[in-house]
Design goal:
two-stranded antiparallel ribbon; mainly alpha; two-stranded antiparallel sheet; 46% helix; 157 residues
């Protein structure tokens, strides 16, 4: 949602301030895009680490993340609730002082969704499956305008 704003009616000082705000917004958006790109790259690297694939034999019990051999009694591994892979105790991340855990890849995936805001669009798509609502910035801005309409005087994107 891009609005054209006529800055000719503003004084020189006001025009400069508006342009400075818009410039800062562009800088912040670029920094945010870079942060999100790094998060997704880190997640991709975790996924591509030595994980089991369908060609590998499953006769030997080994961790799906680090390929460490799993024992019969001690450190026999557990099945991740997210991906259903068997992982060792070192490749688990416990969630907020509970006994619930996920493997490192599933935890990083959830963490990336939280940090990027993708969880919001996924949950919204589940709740309103008929609506076309994607995760791009323009749609997010439109949603923010709908919610905060009484409090927003003018929105520049």
């Amino acid at each position: 949602m891009t609005q054209e704003v006529n800055l000719n009616s503003l004084k020189e000082l006001e025009r400069e301030m508006v342009l400075q705000v818009l410039y800062r917004d562009q800088v912040v958006q670029k920094v945010e895009e870079e942060r999100i790109r790094k998060l997704k790259l880190h997640l991709q690297n975790l996924r591509w680490r030595p994980a089991k694939n369908t060609n590998q034999e499953y006769k030997e019990k080994s961790c799906a993340r680090c390929q460490k051999s799993l024992g019969l009694v001690i450190n026999r591994g557990g099945v991740c609730q997210g991906c259903s892979h068997r992982v060792c105790s070192e490749c688990r991340v416990f969630l907020r002082k509970t006994y619930v855990w996920k493997c490192t890849v599933c935890f990083a995936d959830g963490d990336a969704k939280i940090k990027t805001g993708e969880w919001f669009f996924e949950e919204r798509a589940k709740k309103f499956p008929d609506e076309k609502f994607t995760g791009d910035n323009s749609t997010c801005t439109v949603f923010a305008v709908r919610i905060c309409q009484p409090r927003i005087l003018m929105l520049w994107t």
